[in-house]
Specification:
This protein is mostly helical and 70 residues long. Helix content is 66%, strand content 0%.
Amino acid sequence: MAYVPYTSATRDFVKDKPERNRTGFFRRLANAIYISRQRAVERDVARYLQNSKFTDEAEREIERRFFSTR
């Protein structure tokens, strides 16, 4: 019988693990919430600007309505 180093032949196969490119679950969740809120604000601003021109007064009103921290 011949001696076959079976375990050393499979060791090289196990070492080659693929790198993890995906971001974590909570990072993806936070990004999804951020993008959702950003799109909602953009829709509201577009809806507000449908009926008026983009003037200084309109810009102040948009900032007051959509970007206030209160």
